[in-house]
């Protein structure tokens, strides 16, 4: 809180509104009393200039290219930490001690199995169903199987629900993948770390032994870490809005999954890979570069630039090095899509057109390339995003539920429809 106020002059009346300060970032004008004082609403489509809540979880400075989880720079966490440690940090506000981490890791590991009857859910979907369609359904259905942790007023139940989702959603995601390719479900293994276990559930088959490459597992863990939370984006805001009605946590996370499915949000890395495949071969890149520069051509390069980060995406810098490592391990010699990605990246970093407009490869570009190289189909990309973002959604949901200022979300509108009119019987129309 500051002593500063904002003055709004309407006609001959002046109204004052307090200016609030957070620990870092822009100050905000508190307009909660705006309608009561003036009879006016604000008009802010997309809520791009509106702070809908206060939060202590994630901070972004788009101009500086800065992303902090609980105050820790994403670059440091990516280099020195791992996904489960980041989960603990987001959930509880501080990094765990060794003992706390061991207990947390054990708790998550021991809850990775899902109720056996959930298998029947999958059999009800068409074989060619999009994995995100399946995930939207089965995540919401968790409330039917784990109704002992749906009371949001019970802190213990909120905690159990949080652990269950972090532990079980990777299992559900792997099952969605296995179902889509017609292979049997693979049960989780408690002797594997979080990322390795996920890869094992996705790619192992009963016919032969599958060994997870620790370097690939590390890349997977890194992707999870970089996507764990991203402030009040569309899906997180959806989770908060759903939760504001006191809906159960599984329903709230399912709502987040549904929102994430949109190509403008979680589907961006899938769109990026589809673009690389449309380009096809390295020799066609100049043609598409020229199309991207042509204002009259509807073609747009996916995976470049970012709505929030005006200079560079800090996650992309981390992911860039990982992409190079993964491609070196798995090779790109026989993969035209990855060859196109490498050449397109080189051109974008050197071409003055891209440099002037700050169109650098973003995290979606690199994550799509990595996931494709590992062997995931593009239909799974958004699912993997959902797995990673689950902890962010849960952390935001828990924070909101514990906020004494919590209110049900109720945006207003600028109405421009018909004014009041009388009904005319159909015979006279």
Automatic annotation (TrEMBL):
What GO cellular-component annotations does this UniProt entry give? cytoplasm
List, alphabetically, the InterPro entries matched: Citrate_synth-like_lrg_a-sub, Citrate_synth-like_sm_a-sub, Citrate_synthase, Citrate_synthase_AS, Citrate_synthase_bac-typ, Citrate_synthase_sf, Citrate_synthase_typ-I
Pfam families cross-referenced by the UniProt entry: Citrate_synt
Biological process annotations from GO:
tricarboxylic acid cycle
Q: Which reaction does it catalyse?
A: oxaloacetate + acetyl-CoA + H2O = citrate + CoA + H(+)
An example molecular function term from Gene Ontology annotations: citrate synthase activity
Q: Which Gene3D superfamilies match?
A: 2.20.28.60, Citrate Synthase, domain 1, Cytochrome P450-Terp, domain 2
Write out the entry's keywords from A to Z.
Transferase, Tricarboxylic acid cycle
Q: Which PROSITE patterns match?
A: CITRATE_SYNTHASE
The family annotation for this protein states:
Belongs to the citrate synthase family.
What name has this protein been given in UniProt? Citrate synthase
Please name the taxonomic classification of the source. Bacteria, Pseudomonadati, Pseudomonadota, Alphaproteobacteria, Hyphomicrobiales
Which gene name does the record give? gltA
């Amino acid at each position: 809180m500051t002593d500063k106020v904002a003055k709004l002059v309407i006609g001959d009346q002046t109204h004052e509104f307090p200016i609030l300060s957070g620990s870092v970032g822009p100050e905000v004008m508190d307009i909660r009393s705006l309608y009561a004082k003036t009879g006016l609403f604000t008009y802010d489509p997309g809520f791009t200039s509106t702070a809908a809540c206060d939060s202590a979880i994630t901070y972004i400075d788009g101009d500086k290219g800065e992303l902090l989880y609980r105050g820790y720079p994403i670059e440091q966490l990516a280099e020195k930490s791992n996904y489960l440690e980041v989960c603990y940090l987001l959930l509880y506000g501080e990094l765990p001690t060794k003992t706390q981490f061991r207990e947390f890791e054990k708790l998550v590991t021991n809850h990775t199995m899902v109720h056996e009857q959930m298998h029947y859910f999958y059999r009800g979907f068409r074989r060619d169903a999009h994995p995100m369609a399946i995930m939207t359904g089965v995540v919401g259905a968790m409330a039917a199987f784990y109704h002992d942790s749906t009371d949001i007023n019970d802190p213990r139940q909120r905690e159990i629900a949080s652990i269950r989702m972090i532990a079980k959603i990777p299992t559900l995601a792997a099952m969605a993948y296995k179902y889509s390719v017609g292979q049997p479900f693979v049960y989780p293994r408690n002797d594997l770390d979080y990322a390795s276990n996920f890869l094992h559930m996705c790619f192992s088959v009963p016919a032969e032994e599958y060994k997870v490459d620790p370097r690939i597992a590390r890349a997977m863990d890194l992707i999870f870490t970089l996507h764990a939370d991203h402030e009040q984006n569309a899906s997180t805001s959806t989770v908060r809005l759903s939760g504001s009605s006191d809906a159960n946590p599984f329903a709230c996370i399912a709502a987040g999954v549904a929102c994430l499915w949109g190509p403008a949000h979680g589907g961006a890395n899938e769109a990026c890979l589809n673009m690389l495949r449309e380009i096809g071969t390295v020799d066609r890149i100049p043609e598409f570069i020229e199309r991207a520069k042509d204002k009259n051509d509807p073609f747009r390069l996916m995976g470049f630039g970012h709505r929030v980060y005006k200079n560079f995406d800090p996650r992309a810098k981390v992911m860039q090095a990982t992409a190079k490592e993964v491609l070196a391990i798995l090779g790109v010699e026989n993969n035209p899509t990855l060859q196109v990605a490498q050449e397109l990246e080189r051109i974008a970093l050197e071409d003055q057109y891209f440099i002037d407009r700050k169109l650098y490869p973003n995290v979606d570009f690199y994550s799509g390339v990595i996931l494709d190289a590992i062997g995931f189909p593009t239909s799974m990309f958004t699912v993997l995003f959902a797995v990673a973002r689950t902890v962010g959604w849960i952390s935001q949901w828990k924070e909101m539920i514990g906020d004494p200022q919590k209110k049900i979300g109720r945006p207003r509108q600028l109405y421009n429809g018909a004014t009041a009119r009388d009904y005319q019987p159909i015979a006279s129309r």
